[in-house]
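Components:
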Amino acid sequence: MYKYSEFDDAFLAQRNAQFRAQVERRIAGNLTEDEFKPLRLMNGLYLQLHAYMLRVAIPYGTLNSVQMRQLALLAQKWDKGYGHFTTRQNIQYNWPKLRDVPDMLDSLAEVGMHAIQTSGNTIRNVTADHFAGAAADEYLDPRPYAELVRQWSTDHPEYQFLGRKFKVAVSGSTHDRAVIRAHDIGLQVVEKDGRTGFTVLVGGGLGRTPMIGKVIREFLPEHDLLPYLEAVLSVYNTFGRRDNKYKARIKILVHETGIDEIRARVEERFVETRAEFSDAAMDVLAEIREHFAAPAFSRRSLAPFESAYTNDPVFRSWVDTNIAEHKADGHAIVTISLKAPGATPGDATAAQMRLMADLAEAYSHDELRISHEQNVILPHVHKADLPAIHAALKDGGLATANIGLISDIIACPGMDYCALATARSIPIAQEIATRFDELKLEHDIGELKIKISGCINACGHHHVAHIGILGLDRAGVENYQITLGGEADENAAIGTRTGPGFSADEIVPAIERIVDAYLTLRKGPAETFLQTYKRLGMDPFKAALYEEAKADAA
Amino acid sequence: MSRVSRPFTPKVVTANDLLEGDVIYLTEDDTWTRRLASAEVIEDEAHAQLRLLHAERQPAVAVGPYLADVSMGPNGPEPTHFREDFRRTGPSNYHHGKQEVSTHV
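Structure:
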């Protein structure tokens, strides 16, 4: 894992001291709210519906046990005993008090963490495949690049006031778990003729105008990464629209200008940036890489695992859903579900955070990951340790076996917390998960990704869900629109709206009708919801959704 | 373009508290309350603008003051929109926020 240098520590200490002084000046009346707001947002502090909210960056979703315990400490000491993991691999605290925030930031700095650039029109926290460095299907660990981009973009003087926010995601596997096609820039690490580099995508994004990223560079050699990003950012900064907030993301620039023209402008600028960049960045990358060296994987007997797998059906079910294939023999990637039926997606209590930290320290080479799907990952676990891990998770209420299933729902905070929201998301997620838990159909239904956003900004990624739900305010009443057929991976696609939306009372039965239709229409249990949808299209689902509703009402 | 003048609907002045961040309402006697039921109900457009100005001149207390619609119930003002209902209550997934300290009427 990356460890802060003296330079990083000094920078952070200075920044935190500045913010402490800014808070004091605001309280003393020497700064107006208009002056203070951009300053607090630069440090991740929002004012939401019921309270302030502090968004802490977890760079590329990687953290160690000490950091996780510190996150637990913040939750306990300055919040209400829990934190909320977000779709951008960050953590949010929903209840801090203004006077406490400088202390919270100092506590974070003790473990090399901060909340810088988790808001504002800047380059945000760089996200990555949550299985990075562990996945069996991975070509190369993308996190050294993510860290390089983080260092380059943090406090970059030119990009503190972009036209709009800017998100970069990196993947080292061809199977995309990081939704790189829905980011302003998506980087896919690839190999070409024995050289390592990137396929660069640009102009993806969700929100009110969802777009799938387009390839701007088929192959970018590794050493050109920063000058090329500099070129893209500088073209965006120069030509991106600033007249309309809703048209200010790079996706609109790419869409309105055309990818070929944007590519030409970037290449033109790239000639200049490449000449300006020294090779020092490559030395930095080499140094960063040492921090991400793969741990020494042990070779042990799998007997304890095999015996538990054979004899304990609850353990077996958990292994079958929550374990992914690791690149090292005898090892596994554990996804800890933060989606127990009825729980708030992405929430973990301080005690649960500590338990996960302990497990990471004991069994996962001290590493944890946060996924954009709002779960926590132990990336490097020997299978022989899985029974002990499962037992500990069960005790902590964290052994839900539902990864990738219908109750593993992404949900933004929605109108329960967010000032931008137009409707609630969390209760809808809770009700769907509870309903399908009652029906005991979840494992029979199989892979099905439901994602819920409480407004058009789409933090809940509803556009790229197999079943997407968007909460809106229709004449003063919460109303939920459904989309079908979205995909978040390498086949990324924007879902299609089914038709008119449903009220809060109607939305769970509506989802049930879609799922019932799928179970009736599928060729067999092996055909997933998405495959059935692709084979048959919208019509039969629409019929189930609306004609049955009419029949019920009649 | 013709302007249709709509009848003024009752309002309260609401904001977030600078230090706590929680929802506050302006009262008739120029203090701030945490309870919507104790807020001053404003029935007149001109008076509403004056009260909003009054709130805006208190940046040490109130962040982002605005006028929110209410209707009169048996126990005082009630929100007319669900967003204001959440603001006066708290989130629906935990018993946190205002509902934690007192059950409002």
